[in-house]
Amino acid sequence: MSWSIKLFRIKGIEIKVHLTFVLILIWAAGRWGVTMKGGTTGALYGILVILLLFVCVTIHELAHSLTAMRFGVKVRNITLLPIGGISQMEEMPKKPSEELRMSLAGPLSNFLIAAFLLLLSIPLKFQAEVSATRVSQLMGSVSWEGLLAYLITANIMLGLFNLLPAFPMDGGRVLRSLLAMRMDHAKATATAAAAGQGLAWVMGLIGVLSGAWTLVIIAIFIYLGASQEGRMVEVKNVLGELRVRQAMTTECQGLSPDQPLSAAVDLILHGFQTVFPVLDEGRLAGVLTEADLVSALKEYGPEVAIKMAMRTEVPTADPDGTLFEAQRLMSEKRLNALPVVREGKLVGLLTPQDVSEAYLFLSLKPELLAK
Ligand SMILES: [Zn+2]
Fold first, then answer.
1. What is the dihedral of CA 354, 358, 359, 365, to 10 degrees?
2. Residue list, CB under 5 A from ion ligand 1
3. Which residue in 349, 351, 368, 348 sits closest to 360, CA to CA?
4. What is the C-alpha separation between 59 and 51, in angstroms, rounded?
5. How many angstroms separate the alpha carbon of residue 55 from the centre of ligand 1?
6. Is 256 within 8 Å of 278 (Cβ atoms)?
7. CA-to-CA distance for 314 and 338, rounded, in angstroms?
8. How many C-beta atoms lie closer than 10 Å to residue 250's C-beta?
9. pTM
10. What is the per-residue pLDDT across 219-265, written as a single tens digit (0 to 9) for each?
């Protein structure tokens, strides 16, 4: 089961909340109700503070997503977790200037919210005395001023924290896009990832020396995020400009939509293939996977036609497309094969094995792969 529940949709983007989010509400109720001795009012106030904080987090993610959509990027959903929000996009904007604007939109929205709340607080006259102690006093108190002080501080912190120049923070993408305006994309990512790891080491060291363990945890989180982004680029560098046609399996067995399921069982038992393109007069009509075959066998039996079991909505790859993109599509859609199609006609099948073979031989002897 999925641990997220759907809340609502904005401009086609589904907003979901992870069930662990309840934990942070319980923590907030405890902090303001028990630790700060606010009683029931305090507990309710704590829940209100966190809910409003997450409205700000949602606005931050929406700012990214809506900007990305303007550049033609598909956004699937936004999930709210206790540690913040995550926007799931099908891909990142390609142009550095677009990535820059998309990355800046999130933190910028937090600064705008903080500015707006500051304006709201003018009638409440709390800006009369702006000092760190006063703000931290206010943040702890159960009052409208306290609520405003909390949200203003939190939004400024959220904006600043996300601007740290390290992946997976927005600042990492800002740095990468600025670098990509001067060098190629892969080198820019590698440089930004290295900068992020450097920053993580400095933060971790400061954290250990001063005993600030939260800082150490953040440093580890940044270090892992930066390494992951760097590895992606490494794979992309090795696969480089390799095309799908250089790695795909060309001698694959196809089935016809009217053949019985037992024909597919035969092929699986006597061959290596587990995924079959289904061809209708040479044109790709669908794909039959082993999992679909098994569930259709259970439901209908072996005599039923393959067209009852095949999936018809399958993404395909172009023989001249890059292997890196095809591999990404497979892992994103959790497919174990991608039909390769030119002008509606099937020319081959690409599997994750084909990709890892290409990766292996390319790193060993690049000349082995035909152009
Ligand atoms: Zn962000």
1. 160
2. 106, 162, 170
3. 368
4. 13
5. 14
6. yes
7. 8
8. 10
9. 0.66
10. 888 888 777 777 776 666 667 667 888 888 888 888 889 999 999 89
